[in-house]
Amino acid sequence: MEVYTTRLRSGIARTKEFERKRLASFGVNVGTKCGHGCSYCSTGAVLRMNRSFKEAGRSPFESGYAIVDPDTPDRVAADARRHKRQRGLVQLCTLTDAWAPEAQKHNLGRRCLEAILPEPGWTVRILTKNAAVRKDFDLIEQYRDRVLVGVSITASSDQDHIMSAVEPHASPISERSAVMAEAHARGLRTYAMLCPILPGIADSSEQIDHLVQMAVSLGAEEIFAEAVNARGPGLRKTQEALASHGHTAEAAAIAGIRRREEWCKYVVSVIANLQRSVRAYSSIDRLRVLQYPTALSAEAIAQIQADDEGVIWLGKEQT
């Protein structure tokens, strides 16, 4: 993994988009390219104009490298002190991962927590795909009422061999699940992040039931979920990664939703399965399905709107 460094401008930044998602009012990011290398990641499409890619001489859609800012905690600390009147929930991170391999080298996750939590009025929502976050549970325990722990779960543990093809440098699902179980056992606040729910891997009613039941058993205060984003080259790269590792059925399922009509059907089905499962095993008011109307057909939008409990409509075309 080739690692480049950059200098970001912000520490703690207001984020209206994540506020609409009900995830956080503020966000922190420790770089512009995450070393986990998830094939479906849409961050490259979001940050494609960032100067750090030009400085590194790399395409935001390439894999095999990371861009990190080792000085992020210094700006975070300054912003945490400076915001006197407006403090609230801050997500660590919104676009990259503070516990990815390149971030671990600089201990960025812990250093950011140490920069924020001593200041009263802040609450932190952690989102990571790396089991290394457990090393910081001792710190989190000191502020247990002001930290929400979320380790992204994208499939069941018995599909580690499949997910390693599309999340090559993230911790195995089995390790992520174990970390969530440890967080719950230690009395830490938890929430579930089931994103993305990939077709042929996690979108059947049985697979969604498994994920929802796991989230409930781990004391998840909220259950966030999302269909895979069709933006950018993510679907193609995911299909290619699965096929190159011999997962032909799963690759075919991804290929199927690259057609708009089939992608719309897949989204409608995922939402319906999530609603049914959460109603059966928890309470629908805990469900947060993040959905952009963009690229959905009018028919698909109408189907979802017929029962959109638990759906958070996003973007300029919010409905």
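(ticket continues) Second input and output from the same batch:
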Amino acid sequence: MISVLNSTSQLDAENALASTQASLQNTLTQLSTGLKINSGADDPAGISIAAGLGANIAALTQSSQNASNSIGMLQTADGALSQVTSLLNQAVTLATEAANGQLTAAQSTAADTTYQSIMAEITQIGTTTNFNGNAVFSAIPITTFTSDGTAGGTTITSTTTNALSSTTLALNATALTTVAKASAALTALTAAVATVAATRGAIGASVNQLVADTSVQNTEVTNLTSAQNNVQDADIGATVAKMTQYNVLEQTGMAALSQSNQAEQAILKLIQ
């Protein structure tokens, strides 16, 4: 049947060409962005999964940074306490010498002057050591919050105050001016050395825990990033192949539409 009112072949060609051009445009978008999901329409379930994984990755990345910052602060505290230990050892040497009872009054005074200078330096370390503008040996413990972006998270609390607060309080009243005072100072110094050592051990344990947590977080970020890539990233090789296919289909579709138009023109010849 020959008809001039409706040409189904032309409509079919137009629809096929429009579909091919839409697919080609989508393929070009994927190549330009590197993503196979560029809108919710592309993959409603996939975009939800990718967004959730992205939130996990962001939280874990910041958690790793939180832990790294706390490690830096704790290492600063440990370095300061290492210096305090060295100063305490010098003070122990002076106290032991003064407690022997063989120093003259002038020598005892000189030893005490040096001793008090050491005590002042220990106090200064406790009050001035800071990290990122925060006092390391404050009454506020170091807290580290980590989370994977889901419900809740974990808080690690590390205390650096015990060593210097108790050390300076106990030692500030000591002196080496007499044998008795030197002996009392030596007892206080021995306790201070033990306190500082214990605090450094606790700091070391916290650092090890944070390092382990950071390692786990970084591994999770790597795995989640891989999973997110699998969901949303375009397969460039396959996408290029599709682009080539759609380019060919677009050209053949245009040729088919042109051929359909030529068929319409042929009808005119019948009535000439």
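Agent notes: The chain has two domains: 8-34+235-270, 44-232. Residues 44-232 form a domain with the f41 fragment of flagellin, N-terminal domain fold (CATH 1.20.1330.10). Closing as not reproducible unless the customer responds.
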